């Protein structure tokens, strides 16, 4: 079989697949076949199969000047509010509400208010939770963030979760505190939970998009990418220049169906950088 026939067959086989699937298949082809050619030929194949109808998304990813991560079920394996609820003995009730919010079935602010009114986390309870529940980072995210940092790409954490908890996550991956956008809890003088700061952009539906617009206006980013598992993350593009849906911890049906680029692991994104960058230099 000629190289051209081989590439044509693979292209036809992968036609219509999502970008994440073709990326994975491409890497399998590269390692498992004998049709290894020059870097230039492989680059052409990479562009043909991996990009397809998503070529602009991959180009944006390779030239990103800022990347924003959701935290719960994206950067971290768990939903912190669900874990906090378990810690407080109201886990199942809160879990159902979280699923509704992540699937976009109720407004985020209503879901947040409802969950916090059930949990009522005091300052002391929150402190105990943080001390006994270190962040469980998603597999591969440290490698991806390290590559982004080496490329001097600005990284932000944008979350509907709680800033106090997310600060411990940011520390694990060397992201500065002023690159965190998340909700602040309010307490009375005795440390009892009172409310949350409704002035925070992340405290309402559409808030993540407002944060991204703020960042673009302030820093003049031209290729800002949002990565997340939930509907609220997907709704942030635009103003984000591209959205990458993430299903490595939990797959949200709405996000998987509607995201133009959906990945199941951070390794998929890391490999696009590695293979794309290496071959661009040839």
From TrEMBL:
Its EC number is 3.1.3.3. It comes from the Eukaryota. Its cofactor is Mg(2+). Pathway: Amino-acid biosynthesis; L-serine biosynthesis; L-serine from 3-phospho-D-glycerate: step 3/3. GO terms for molecular function: L-phosphoserine phosphatase activity; magnesium ion binding. One of its GO terms (cellular component) is cytoplasm. The active site is at residues 70, 72. NCBIfam families: HAD-SF-IB, serB. This is Phosphoserine phosphatase. It comes from Octopus sinensis.
């Amino acid at each position: 079989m000629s190289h051209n026939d081989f590439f044509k067959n693979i292209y036809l086989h992968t036609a219509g697949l999502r970008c994440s699937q073709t990326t994975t298949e491409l890497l399998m082809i590269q390692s498992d076949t004998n049709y290894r050619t020059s870097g230039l030929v492989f680059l052409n194949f990479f562009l043909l199969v991996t990009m397809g109808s998503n070529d602009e998304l991959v180009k944006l990813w390779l030239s990103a000047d800022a990347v924003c991560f959701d935290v719960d079920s994206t950067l971290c394996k768990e939903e912190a509010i669900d874990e906090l609820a378990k810690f407080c003995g109201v886990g199942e009730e809160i879990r159902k509400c979280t699923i509704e919010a992540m699937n976009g079935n109720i407004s985020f602010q209503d879901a947040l208010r409802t969950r916090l009114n059930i949990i009522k986390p005091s300052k002391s309870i929150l402190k105990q939770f943080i001390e006994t529940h270190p962040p469980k980072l998603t597999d591969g995210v440290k490698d991806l963030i390290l590559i982004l940092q080496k490329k001097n790409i600005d990284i932000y954490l944008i979350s509907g979760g709680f800033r106090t908890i997310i600060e411990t996550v940011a520390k694990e991956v060397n992201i500065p505190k002023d690159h965190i956008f998340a909700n602040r809890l309010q307490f009375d003088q005795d440390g009892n939970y009172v409310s949350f700061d409704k002035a925070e952009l992340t405290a309402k539906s559409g808030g993540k998009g407002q944060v991204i617009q703020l960042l673009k206006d302030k820093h003049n980013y031209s290729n800002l990418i949002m990565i997340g598992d939930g509907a609220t993350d997907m709704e942030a593009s635009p103003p984000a220049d591209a959205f990458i849906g993430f299903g490595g911890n939990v797959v949200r049906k709405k996000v998987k169906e509607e995201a133009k680029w959906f990945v199941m692991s951070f390794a998929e994104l890391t490999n696009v950088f590695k293979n794309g960058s290496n071959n661009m230099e040839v």
